[in-house]
From TrEMBL:
A Pfam family annotated for this UniProt entry: PorZ_N_b_propeller
Residue ranges constituting the PorZ N-terminal beta-propeller domain according to the UniProt record: 44-202
Organismal lineage: Bacteria, Pseudomonadati, Bacteroidota, Flavobacteriia, Flavobacteriales
Gene3D superfamilies: YVTN repeat-like/Quinoprotein amine dehydrogenase
Signal peptide (from-to): 1-19
Taxonomic superkingdom: Bacteria
The name this protein goes by in its record: T9SS type A sorting domain-containing protein
NCBIfam families reported for this sequence: Por_Secre_tail (TIGR04183)
Keyword check for Signal: yes
Source organism: Flavobacterium restrictum
Keywords: Signal
């Protein structure tokens, strides 16, 4: 582990490269959960959960903006585009506000609301209303002024009873007064009053809870929590329409008033005559839940809670177009698996206690499956997976990449062939079993970790039953193995990730008995558990396992990291024992990742370990764990969250995919799997231009290839031995000074010296 000065320097460098160049990062975000809409003369702006996109109605081009571009990974709650200054304001649930200058794309993070001495749960930004160069920001505590010229906050209005905080949903200016729809009534004050910070200046003109208020032509319209649309006249509100359900949104645009509920969009003209009603049942193939709507150039744009953005002509409202950018169906990717050509993702899942019912507060979840390839995203809906819920793992057949299995932690195992789900294995048609302790009529088949062995058999674990280890053989037959001999109580054990090592030993995680292993060649179960005489794990709860290039087994638990020095110990030792990795930091011996909840461990082509955590982001440590090469968090990288669900690596490109609960991004790593020969050696960038501030990558190497770099006269400036398929050169002469402009020769030879390759790279200073 590097010393603190290294961390400071690294964070500065990463933050700088993050802000100035996104070449090493890529975002794979979902844009289906629309939080708010806005528009200018030609463009519709849409805010999804933690990203933006816009559609130019003249060119139909779509632009996306996410954490790779500088947005926060926090949840967006409000959006507003100001035509007067060509800036877009984004409000977040935590009170953060980001201002985007659309002229040059620069972003300003405004943290004044976050820094207010108020409870964190009442800082949510609900709405923006612009008047005379000032934006009135409606929040869960009151109203804040924001100056669009100075980009500074002004006064804060606490307008609740006796000056208390009250949740303001929306504001409007009408006939010289400012009105606020709050959870404690509609409150108003003289807009010209210079003392609006005094709560006594605000009068309650209509009691109750109100969700919306808007100036519409010569009228003031409001909606209460009961779904009654009311018009203000003669100092009182009267009902003009009944929605039948709560309003999600109301806004006045282009001489129309748009009212959105979960199931319909109502468009009124200035006489409050309904000119168009759009029901969610009219949308083809889905029945979405609406969140908001706006109109631009006689086209209605409708945001939904899970299905993205739709548009339809105002004149008819019958033909719908989906305007959502390509992406996964959700941001919260629970697990993924990638090959050299595509990536599969599933959405889980279960809580940390392996409970599928409480995951996302809705479980068992019904979210389907996604696949990413050069053709874009393919989203397989829940309706196509035979009712399989809480899909927690994806397993690709290494001998046939068109055959994929999805583990459901509630319903069994889904077989997918040529991107089409074809069969659901469950308790009725396979060796899989439902939990039984809740009675014979309760069906709950919890399949999780799965892996193929060298013979093409699929091994998997089946939680909370006696015969919890299963194998689907290549001939279609099932075999089950009792775990009573190795687990303290089989029906209490929930099981996680499963891997198979080169000796064909199966290793899998449990929450009650540590790490379990089985090898059918000797027909033995063994386990590594908590306690110095049982394996030296820091807890019984194991979550991540990986075998590295030196046959070491890395084990991630909810309380730290352990390493088994040799996987062969399973065959030779009665009790396998792990050890922690001790590092020096500030000359003090410390345990690497002490007490960290580790969610995943992945080994790259150079034997480095990518380690995901539940609340501290991602660590990249060296092969032996003694050096932390990177530590990515939301503060120094585009990570949208520090909760890491899963990590996988494209072995051909070195691209590291990181799935979090708020979106997936990738880091263009430098460690690729070793090649079989030197026929595809590639050097990039080439040439190296003056403005480039990075390293030269030489990829397509054999493992342990010797790489020498010389100037044109044969003077050696760099030499190394590759681990994996890629090495980096910082364009210095052995780290001492930057080499001069010129052509540099790269001599590559295999470890045995039989195969060689020569490449060139040009340096321009």
């Amino acid at each position: 582990m590097k010393k603190k000065c290294f961390y400071i320097l690294f964070l500065i460098l990463v933050q700088s490269s993050f802000a100035q160049s996104n070449l090493v990062w890529k975002g794979y975000f979902s844009y289906t959960e629309i939080k708010d809409l806005s528009e200018d003369a030609t463009t519709v702006f849409a805010a999804s959960e933690n990203a933006l996109f816009s559609k130019n109605t003249s060119t139909s081009s779509i632009k996306t903006t996410n954490t790779i571009d500088g947005l926060s990974g926090e949840t967006i709650s409000a959006l507003y585009h100001s035509n007067t200054v060509n800036k877009t304001l984004i409000g977040y649930e935590n009170g953060l506000m980001i201002v985007i200058n659309e002229a040059d794309g620069t972003m300003l993070n405004v943290v004044d609301i976050i820094n207010k001495q108020l409870p964190a749960n009442i800082k949510k930004i609900n709405h923006f209303m612009e008047k005379d160069g000032i934006v009135y920001v409606s929040c869960d505590f009151g109203i804040v002024q924001f100056n669009l010229t100075t980009l500074l906050f002004g006064d804060t209005y606490f307008i609740g009873d006796s000056g208390k905080e009250t949740s303001v949903k929306q504001t409007a200016v009408y006939n010289g007064f400012i009105y606020a729809a709050t959870e404690t009534g509609i409150r108003s004050a003289d807009f010209s009053n210079k003392n609006l910070i005094d709560y006594k200046q605000w009068a309650v003109i209509s009691p109750g809870s109100w969700s919306s208020i808007e100036t519409f032509g010569t009228a003031l319209i409001a909606i209460n929590s009961a779904g009654l649309v009311q018009k203000y006249a003669s100092n009182a509100f009267s009902t003009v329409a009944t929605l039948g359900q709560a309003a999600q949104d109301m806004r006045a645009k282009s001489n129309y008033l748009l009212v959105t509920t979960a199931s319909k969009v109502l468009v009124y003209n200035q006489q409050m005559i309904l000119v168009l009603q759009i029901n969610n049942s009219q949308i083809p193939d889905v029945v979405p839940s609406f969140s908001c709507a706006t109109v631009l150039n006689d086209v209605v744009y409708i945001g939904t809670q899970e299905n993205g953005l739709f548009s339809t002509a105002l004149a008819s409202g019958t033909v719908f177009e989906n305007d959502t950018p390509s992406g996964p169906s959700r941001n919260n990717i629970f697990a993924l698996q990638t090959t050299t050509t595509f990536l599969w993702a599933v959405y889980g899942g279960y809580l940390g206690s392996y409970n599928p019912y409480g995951y996302n507060g809705t479980g068992p979840n019904s979210y389907g499956i996604s696949k990413f390839s050069d053709a874009g995203w393919l989203n397989i809906p829940y309706s196509k997976v035979f009712g399989a819920k809480s899909i927690s793992r994806i397993t690709i057949n290494p001998n046939n990449e068109k055959q994929v299995y999805a583990s459901s932690f509630f319903s069994g195992l889904v077989k997918i062939e040529d991107d089409i789900p074809t069969f659901l294995y469950n308790q009725t048609n396979s060796g899989l079993e439902s939990i039984s302790f809740l009675g014979p009529n309760y069906i709950d088949v919890r399949i999780n970790g799965a892996a193929f062995d060298k013979s093409g058999n699929l091994w998997l674990n089946n939680s909370l039953i006696e015969k919890g280890l299963k194998v689907l053989k290549t001939n279609g037959q099932w075999q089950s193995f009792s775990l009573n001999s190795i687990l303290d109580k089989s029906i209490d054990a929930s099981m996680g990730r499963l891997i198979i090592d080169k000796n064909d030993t199966k290793w899998w995680c449990t929450n009650t008995d540590g790490l379990i292993a089985y090898n059918e060649s000797i027909n033995k179960f063994k386990k590594i558990n908590f306690g110095p005489d049982k394996g030296n794990l820091p807890t019984t709860n194991v979550r991540a396992i990986a075998v590295d290039n030196r046959n070491q087994l890395w084990i991630g638990t909810t309380k730290g990291l352990r390493v088994l020095s040799n996987i062969g110990d399973f065959l030779t030792e009665d009790q396998m024992t792990t050890s922690s990795i001790i590092i020096l930091e500030d000359n003090l011996a410390q345990e690497l990742l002490y007490e960290q909840f580790i969610t995943d461990i992945v080994v790259d082509g150079a034997n480095n370990k990518w380690i995901g955590t539940a609340d501290s982001g991602v660590f990249l440590v060296s092969a032996n764990g003694q050096e932390t090469k990177y530590h990515f968090t939301t503060k120094n990288s585009p990570l949208p969250s520090n909760l890491i669900n899963d990590i996988d690596i494209n072995s051909a490109t070195g691209e590291v995919f990181i799935a979090t609960d708020k979106g997936m991004i990738s880091f263009k790593g430098v460690s690729t799997a070793a090649s079989a020969d030197l026929s595809n050696v590639y050097v990039y960038p080439n040439p190296v231009r003056p403005e480039f501030d990075g390293t030269v990558k030489i990829t397509g190497l054999l493992n342990k290839a010797n790489v020498k770099i010389t100037d044109i006269e044969g003077n050696l400036v760099y030499e190394t031995i590759s681990e994996g398929g890629t090495i980096e050169w910082d364009t210095t002469a052995f780290g001492k000074y930057k080499v001069a402009s010129g052509v540099y020769m790269i001599f590559i030879s295999a470890q045995d010296g039989i195969e060689t390759k020569v490449k060139k790279v040009m340096i321009i200073r």
